[in-house]
Amino acid sequence: MKNAWKRWIKISNLAVITAIPTLISLADLHRATAEDPGACFMINSAGRTVRLTQLCSRTKTPLDSVSSDKRIFRVPIKRRLGGTPIIDVTFNDKQTFEMIVDTGASGTLITLGMASTLKLEPTGMMKAQIADGSQVQFSTSKVNSIAVGGVVANNIEVAIAPKAGIGLLGHDFFGNYNLTVLEQEVEFHPR
């Protein structure tokens, strides 16, 4: 009896071993595959993905028509001040300073310390309206170049703010670019 019992255990173990590949291949037949529905879809009440490509067709934006010879320049955001990005900006191919990317500033403003490091002498004066609406007067000077991640502007007049703790990069630098502020970088798209 013991021998018959041992043979039955061996046969049933063999049956289980031969059945496992069949179960695995049956599972493979019903494996779900993830498919990217693209950017334009919805999930209906039955949980099915419905593509909405006809509804989401869009017209070309100015960025779509940028020729391939115009590069998008990406600059890492070092940190943020009140949510506004701060990036590295190089002056006269030599000195790099952290500056705020100020999309509301028409001109570039540097600190007195930056002007001293760059050995700039005041060459003029300008009046400017600041964010609170008041008018202030700044000394001005010219820098040979300002560069950020491949974008370069030459002969830029900058305002020198004696009480500022950090400089502001304004439209006089990036006025020929559309800016996109992402989580970790700022993109400069040529217009």
* Distance N to C terminus: 90 Å
Helicity level:
10-25%
Strand content: 35-45%
Radius of gyration: 32 Å
Poorly predicted parts: 11-34, 58-69
Structural class: alpha+beta
- DSSP strand tally: 13
Order of helices and strands: HEEEEEEEHEEEEHEE
> Shape, please?
elongated
Described by strand count, sense and barrel closure, the largest sheet is: 8 strands, mixed
The overall pLDDT average reads 78
> What is the fold-level CATH name, i.e. the topology of the domain at 73-190?
Cathepsin D, subunit A, domain 1
Number of helices: 3
CATH class of the domain at 73-190: Mainly Beta
Supply the CATH architecture of the domain at 73-190: Beta Barrel
CATH homologous superfamily designation of the domain at 73-190: Acid Proteases
List keywords for this structure.
Peptidase_aspartic_dom_sf, Cathepsin D, subunit A, domain 1, three-stranded antiparallel β-sheet, eight-stranded mixed β-sheet, single chain, 191 residues
Topology, pairings included?
Blueprint: H1 2-29, E1 41-43, E2 49-51, E3 73-76, E4 79-81, E5 84-91, E6 95-101, E7 109-111, H2 112-117, E8 124-129, E9 135-148, E10 151-161, E11 167-169, H3 171-174, E12 177-181, E13 185-190
Parallel strand pairs: 6-11, 7-10
Antiparallel strand pairs: 1-2, 3-13, 4-5, 5-6, 5-9, 8-9, 9-10, 12-13
Protein described:
The protein starts with a helix and ends with a strand. It has helices at 2-29, 112-117, 171-174, and strands at 41-43, 49-51, 73-76, 79-81, 84-91, 95-101, 109-111, 124-129, 135-148, 151-161, 167-169, 177-181, 185-190. It is built from three helices and 13 strands; from the N terminus they run αβββββββαββββαββ. The protein has a domain at 73-190: Cathepsin D, subunit A, domain 1 (Beta Barrel). The protein is 20% helix and 40% strand. Strands 4, 5, 6, 7, 8, 9, 10 and 11 form an eight-stranded mixed β-sheet that branches. A three-stranded antiparallel β-sheet has the order 3-13-12, with no helix packed on it. Strands 1-2 form a two-stranded antiparallel ribbon.
